[in-house]
Amino acid sequence: MVAKIGRGQNLTGVLSYNQLKVEKEKAEVLFTHKILETPDGHYSIHQMFRSFEPYLLANRKTEKAVLHISINPNPKDNVSDEKFNVIAEEYMQKMGYGEQPFVVFKHTDIERTHIHIVSVCVDEQGRKISDSYERMRSMDICRDLEKKYGLIVARENEQQQNNKTFAPVDYKANDLKSHVASVVRYLPKYYHFQSLGEYNALLSLFNITVEEVKGELHGKPKNGLVYFALNENGAKGSNPFKASLFGKTAGHQHLQNHFEESKVVLKQNDTRLSIKGTIETALKTTTDEQDFKKQLAEKGINVVVLRNDTGRIYGITFIDHNSKTVWNGSRLGKEFSANVFNEWWNKGLKPEVRNSEDTETIINKPVSESLPAEKTHDLFNFLSNHSPVHSDDSHSSIEGFGGLLPESQGEDYQEQDFANKMKKKKKRKRGQ
């Protein structure tokens, strides 16, 4: 059994993610603690939020007060609802969160049934609950619960490798190559994108970029790809990694084939219309860039914006983690092109959606001059405070979406990395 601990600022995003699963009958509220009850036994995002709100209002200075934990038994374990409830309660109690309000969601959308726990890590007086040695304690608690309830013991080597995929890479990490490899090997298997630009937008969520290189080999033209990790400024922060280091799926030819396959797949389904409708709603109901991105984030859509040195928007891409599709704005329609959003966010001409007989068109109208001037954002401007690339409207794209990116079957990599460092320190002390 593996517990993944995430922290963030966006409680609404985490609740929305789990509640969306409930509405799609892919999850259910299994257990609640100190949460307002309802006459019919059903829960809403607003109602659950009210139970946490006093703690957040009392919060003194904890930046990331929202707690989102997933507990993942081995797929071969047959865990009943009653046992999940007991495991969740015992885990929270032993971790020091037993007196906190929390909601336990059971997810059944993938083969591995598992639970998500949403809570807050500040008490009623707004004081942060200690997280000292949290990951080590979590590992020990999981081992104890496995023994107590007869669950299969997690194998550390598989857990560590699987979980590397699901967090932005740190360009300073010692094993950076393996972190980059786990991302670039995974994404083309599950996400549909039709160009290198759309692929780069997706990679940017993990602090990675890819470039095409051209040359000659034995007198014949040769195309290839090189990958880089990005630093906190959105610039290249590592030496280049040749695609061949990561296998054929990360290479030029495989991606060209993937682009063509994605074009066929996306042409045959109605994903495009659904995403357009969601974006149009956001255009109608939001007032600025931050609000626009936040609303789409709550629907599981990342917005990646590219700006040049003068702040002009020259690219915008929408990444829908529900359908696992990536769309350049112009590919969705000229009304979603980079120029439309540049006119809005840099010149104050907000797009207005107007109904016509067959479809909807978008025009620009002036925005009140009282609105503050828009800041120039980083190169890869997206909602993520897991990433070292900061933006002024940062919400966690992983925590904020509650984990809409693929779920890990393994142990938290940072948890295991901390354990390894502690072991090394003990060895050094013995040797002294």
Automatic annotation (TrEMBL):
It holds the Pfam family Relaxase. Signal peptide: none annotated. InterPro entries: Endonuclease_MobA/VirD2 (IPR005094). It comes from the Bacteria. Residues 391-432 are annotated as: Disordered. Residues 421-432 have a biased composition (Basic residues). Residues 21-151 form the MobA/VirD2-like nuclease domain. This is Conjugal transfer protein MobB. The gene is mobB.
